[in-house]
Amino acid sequence: GVLGLGRIGYEVAKRLAGFGMEIAYSDVAPKDFAADWEVLADPVALARRSDFLFVTLAASAATRHIVNSEVIAALGEEGMLINISRASNIDEDALLDALEKKGLGSAALDVF
Question: Counting beta carbons within 10 angstroms of the beta carbon of residue 4, is it exposed (0 to 12), middle (13 to 18) or buried (19 or more)?
């Protein structure tokens, strides 16, 4: 799943689709250019649907800690969280707790 289908999220999704992955995304509104991909209304539903969750959102007050304990729990103990956006989009305490308690399979962060 791709959380945030802006310019970067779209490029990530195109590349993942090239490897045969099913694409689902969540954004403020459905995108015309992504008509072949599943759109989900909220991050929890997207995480529940996904094995891999790519976070590609811009940082804002509205996206601060958008990936919280509920999203991480929905991704599950086999799920992988990949954050290529801003660190503020991830609730780091919830992430560390989930990793320590094996509630999340793994995480890859380019910022922390």
Answer: buried
